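In response to the reviewer comment on reproducibility (Comment 2.3), we provide here a single inverse folding case reported in full, input and output, so that an independent group could reproduce the run without further information from us. The structure tokens appear first.
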């Protein structure tokens, strides 16, 4: 017990932080959108990252114990006259992502996949959990998509 208290005091006095450096990097932001209930098989999530003012990683997660896949950005598109962009899975599947008034419409070209994804809060709930510093709020998330994914780089 004394060793634990001494280590805690050392961290406090020396100003040592245990946070991940990516969470304190102000040049990194993440816009997260999801569909379904977290912790269920129907859960799906898209995570759009920007780093140093440029489009970075796009990830898709799914399932009860989410499995994450990296996606490739495949350029601009339109869907029913709305500005959109395409992402591609490693297996070749291409999805069109269309930001619309605070949510995303995600669909495939064949018409077999069409879902609405809403902004996903990533942080403490009822005081439990950690705050996600690079995670954008709902409004900022839409700005990130418009600025970094709907405009050519």
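Designed residues, in position order:
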């Amino acid at each position: 017990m004394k060793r634990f208290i001494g280590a805690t005091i050392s961290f406090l006095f020396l100003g040592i932080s245990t946070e991940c450096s990516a969470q304190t990097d102000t040049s990194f932001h993440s816009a997260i959108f999801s569909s379904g209930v977290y912790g269920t098989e129907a859960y799906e999530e898209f995570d759009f990252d920007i780093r140093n003012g440029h489009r970075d990683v796009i990830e898709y997660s799914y399932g009860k114990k989410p499995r994450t896949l990296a996606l490739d950005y495949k350029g601009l598109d339109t869907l029913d006259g709305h500005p959109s962009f395409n992402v591609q899975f490693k297996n070749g599947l291409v999805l069109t992502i269309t930001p619309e008034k605070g949510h995303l419409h995600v669909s495939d070209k064949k018409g077999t996949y069409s879902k609405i994804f809403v902004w996903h809060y990533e942080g403490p709930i009822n005081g439990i959990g950690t705050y996600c510093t690079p995670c954008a709020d709902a409004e900022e998330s839409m700005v990130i998509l418009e600025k970094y994914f709907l405009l050519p780089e």
